[in-house]
Amino acid sequence: MQKFKLMIQNNRYILDELGATVELASFQTEGGVAEHHAIIHVEPRGDVFLRQYERLVSAEEELMKMDGMKDAKPIFKRYFLSDATNQALLMPQDGTCAVSFIQQAPLDGSKVALWIYLQEGTEVTCEEGKTTVVEHNGYKDLWTMGIHSNVDNSYMQTWKTLFEYIDILKRHDATLFNNCIRTWFFVRDVDTQYGGLVKARRECFLEQGLTPQTHYISSTGIGGNPADPKALVQLGAYAMTGFEPEQQKYLYALDHLNKTIEYGVTFERGTLFNYGDRSHIYISGTASIDNRGEVLHVGDIVKQTERMWENVEALLSEGEMSYDDVMQIIVYLRDTADYDVVSRMFRKKFPNTPYVITLAPVCRPTWLIEMECIAVQKRESNFRKF
User: Fold this and answer.
1) Cα–Cα dist 267/237, whole Å
2) What CA–CA distance (Å, rounded) separates 296 from 303?
3) What CATH number does the domain containing 25 carry?
4) Which end of the chain is more exposed for a tag (fewer CB within 10 A), N or C?
5) How far apart are CA 164 and CA 167, in angstroms?
């Protein structure tokens, strides 16, 4: 078995011979479930896709050999691809967990990157490659990835994907209203197809009881091509059963951001979840916007990035967390020419946090950048432990 030399810089594990880097963030309370977020990057090295993918797989194998990872099990994987239609066909089916393939090219010049979420101390099963079921201390997590359709238009495809997801939830005695915590909508040609998604989601949510007077669901709606060339919309989601309603709180940061319903979209800015030993925050896709819903700093990538950071920080602060608690970040850029400056900014601000920067236009053309993240913090309460 080949062994690769490992160089460690902060939370970055550099496999130089392999031409790969593993960025890893881990969290565990005493005697509790361990959580790991890893983002794996590969150097292009002039290789064709299959060779880059093989090196990424080797880097994932090395990840599993690292200290503290021996018993970790994958919960879900998201592959960021430069040509999903062709590349997904070349990748073997992974039955260990839910997997998402989406065309959002990594902007470091490679053809593939991977975000993988792992846990230790939970019971993990995978249903038909779409939903990972995770059971721990009376909770049941449902991570569902890759739901899509190829009927008609983005409006009808959104309805179809949402009702397929609702059927998955029903099988676990769950509902969209009570149990769904986080969604991702990837939209082909977001500048023209996003409107159909927004309309269908709003109507479906209303039918399911989700209104401005109740609540919505934290979400990212972003440009991204499914592997199926006829699919205009692809859905991924996270839901949970077994929790008390008081464990969940929505984050607004109204001094920085407005409620999304004010400009016609139906998602929450962020969600805080409290357990007996920790808290999670799921930050939705967030861009350079003010508390009137107006885009700030049109045409200026540096100022938009700084305002985006400020908005995310305000949401984290409302949940009594900070950037020190963030475990992973996904960054979406509209213009590849902005990669160098944004990459330098993120490298300076987040030297220890796993992140990937991808090509993915935001839902408003004047937004040049968007980010999402997940944060975890040790916190004791009277709720059951995670």
Assistant:
1) 13
2) 8
3) 3.30.1330
4) N
5) 5
Q: Distance between CA 246 and CA 12 in Å, rounded?
A: 37
- pLDDT single digits (tens) 195-233: 999 999 999 999 999 999 999 999 999 999 999 999 999
- Two structure tokens written together for 288: 């350079």
* Cβ-based neighbours of 3, under 8 Å, separated by 6 or more: none
Instruction: Tell me the average pLDDT across 363-382.
Output: 96
30, part of any domain:
yes
In this prediction, residues 260-277 reach a mean pLDDT of: 96
The beta strands (E) that lie in the chain are given as: 7-9, 12-15, 20-28, 34-42, 73-81, 98-103, 112-120, 123-127, 131-136, 139-148, 180-187, 218-223, 233-241, 248-251, 270-274, 278-286, 326-333, 355-359, 369-378
* Residue 175, in any domain of the structure: no
User: In angstroms, rounded to a whole number, what is the distance separating the alpha carbons of residues 335 and 369?
Assistant: 9
CB 54 within 8 Å of CB 66: no
Residue 321 lies in a domain: no
Look at residue 4 and tell me whether its pLDDT is greater than 70. Answer: no
CA 339 to mean position of chain CA atoms: 20
Cβ neighbour number for residue 315 with a 10 Å cutoff: 24
315 DSSP assignment: H
Mean pLDDT, the chain, integer:
96
Domain count, the chain: 1
The C-alpha R_g of the chain, in whole angstroms, comes to 19
pLDDT in tens, 120-170: 999 999 998 799 999 999 999 999 999 999 999 999 999 999 999 999 999
204: alpha, beta or left? (left if phi > 0; alpha if psi -120 to 50): alpha
CA 295 – CA 318 distance, rounded (Å): 22
Q: Within a domain: residue 95?
A: yes
Residue range(s) defining the domain that contains residue 69: 1-129
